[in-house]
Design a protein that fits this description.
This protein is 66% helix and 0% strand. The chain contains twelve helices and no strands. The structure holds fe (ii) ion (2 copies).
Length: 295
């Protein structure tokens, strides 16, 4: 079993011997040994209902285009990071993790497509949203959008690990994909913000403007539900949308639970510091992921 942290890199911590903007006090682990089998995943893979399954399917299908977008935004400035080897290594490892995420999502997307999900239409829609989001932005603006987007994923990740009522309703292999992906999002949760600060410092208004741009990502969550429903010949009613809203905001209410974490990013003094409890949590999470490998 791979360990969550190969080594502590205390040089990255406050008071360490090397000057770095990195807030990640360990070497980021790129897992390449996870085995996937999505062959038994059914159309309704979340026992709540079909619409909730469509929402999570949207997040599966969004994986590859969003990861492509993130990598495209992170790479152009990577080689210009000088004098901060820890930060540079973090960014390289984060990109390597994102490549693996994309590959795993593609595998599940293929299964969803095979059982009738209109993944091509959903992907085209997501790519259009991403195009709108980045229109006219410079490379450093793009980093700002990615840092905000990554913070959103970090917010979801921090809620998902303890959201028993969400995880138990999912097909185990779908649940495991999200467990894996959110674990790594939590691990590299600080990296794109560190990279962004390397170029922009603490430019508060720029950060807020780019976070405002990133809001379009949330639009995808409802757009893909309509696309998948139409693909299955269903027309969603107001009551269907209400049920989805209830799932997102009331019970289990992941959006409600993550809203505090999301709001942290809007603080002028925002930073993401890993505490010992966070590191213990990452270890627990990693153990759960590998325990699922044996099933
Ligand atoms: Fe990712
Ligand atoms: Fe990420």
């Amino acid at each position: 079993m791979a360990k969550v942290r190969e080594e502590m890199v205390n040089d990255a911590a406050p008071g360490g011997s090397v000057e770095t903007l990195s807030q990640t006090p360990f070497k980021i682990n790129v897992r390449k040994d996870i085995v996937w089998d999505f062959s038994q995943v059914p159309v309704q893979f979340d026992s709540t209902d079909k619409i909730v399954s469509y929402m999570w399917a949207g997040l599966v299908v969004a994986g590859p285009p969003v990861e492509r977008f993130f990598i495209k935004a992170l790479k152009p400035t990577l080689d210009t990071i000088k004098g901060d080897p820890k930060l540079k290594q973090d960014v390289e490892d984060m990109i390597a993790q994102e490549v693996q995420h994309s590959a795993a999502h593609i595998k599940l997307t293929k299964q969803l497509e095979a059982i009738g999900y209109d993944c091509k239409k959903a992907t085209a829609y997501i790519e259009d949203v991403l195009k709108d989001l980045t229109l006219g932005l410079s490379p450093v603006d793009m980093l700002g959008v990615v840092a905000a987007g990554e913070h959103s994923l970090y917010a979801i990740a921090s809620v998902f690990i303890d959201a028993k009522e969400v995880r138990e309703r999912m097909h185990p292999q779908v649940e495991r994909l999200f467990l894996y992906h959110f674990l790594e999002e939590a691990e590299h949760g600080a990296v794109s913000h560190d990279q962004y600060r390397y170029f922009m410092g603490n430019s508060y208004w720029h950060r807020i403007r780019m976070a405002y741009r990133a809001r379009h990502v949330f639009r995808m969550l409802t757009g893909v539900v309509d696309i998948f429903a139409a693909g299955f010949g269903q027309k969603l009613t107001a009551a269907d949308h209400m049920r989805l809203w209830h799932y997102q905001w009331v019970y289990p209410g992941m959006m409600r639970k993550m809203s505090g974490r999301l709001a942290e990013y809007l603080s002028p003094t925002y930073k993401l510091t890993f505490k010992h409890e966070d590191l213990d949590l990452l270890d627990r999470w990693n153990a759960e992921l590998y325990a699922g490998q044996a099933k």
